[in-house]
Amino acid sequence: MVNRIVLIGRLTRDPELRTTNTGKNMATFGVAVQKRMKPQDGSPDADFFNVKAWGQTAEYASNYLTKGRLVAIDGRMESRKYTDQQGNNREIWEVVADNVNGLDRPKDDAGGNAGGGGQAYAGGQSSGNSPRQPAVAAAPSADEYDPFADD
User: Fold this and answer.
1) Which positions ≥6 away from 70 have C-beta within 8 Å?
2) Backbone angles phi, psi at 121, to 5 degrees
């Protein structure tokens, strides 16, 4: 059996970081994924998912992602049942993210690296508390580029 989901969409709200009683970090946020074809019946043209992330992935989401950012999420679907305040039985489905990557730069980023632009830190893949800083090099001009040259 396989339970895997991959989403690319925009955050609908800022990640909310909480710490459990046992000291684990957890972040929750929403993601809207645009549908391939716009519905003709007037229904929303996006699907909305609730996402939960744990540990370093939660810290990354909380520190580097904000509402409106384009993200890629790799995780699994999970359902929970509970009883609401009125005594009704409820079931919700949410994505438990194993990896979260920022795919664009923040709008207020003036050229610095804040985990966007394809150089994003995927939670749980770094040995430190801060994201990896990629090496930045100037791209060669079109007439200087030789794909077969030895580096």
Assistant:
1) 8, 9, 10, 102, 103, 104
2) -85, 130
Which position has the higher pLDDT, 61 or 118? 61
Which position has the token pair 């009683």?
21
Q: Please report, in angstroms and rounded to a whole number, the separation of the first and last CA atoms in the chain.
A: 45
Phi then psi for residue 46, to 5 deg, are: -145, 155
At residue 118, the pLDDT reads 40
Question: In terms of DSSP H, where are the helices of the chain?
Answer: 55-64
Q: Which residues contact 47 (CB under 8 A, 6 or more apart)?
A: 32, 33, 35
Report domain extents, the chain.
Answer: 5-102
Query: What integer is the mean pLDDT of 138-149?
Result: 55
pLDDT in tens, 13-47: 999 999 999 999 999 999 999 988 877 787 778 99
Could you tell me which CATH number the domain at 5-102 has?
Answer: 2.40.50.140
Report the pLDDT value the prediction gives residue 104, as an integer from 0 to 100: 86
Task: Give the three-state DSSP class for 129.
Answer: coil
Helix (H, G, I), strand (E, B) or coil at 144: coil
Answer for the pair 49, 74: CB distance below 8 angstroms, yes or no.
Answer: no
Determine the longest span between alpha carbons in the chain, in angstroms.
70
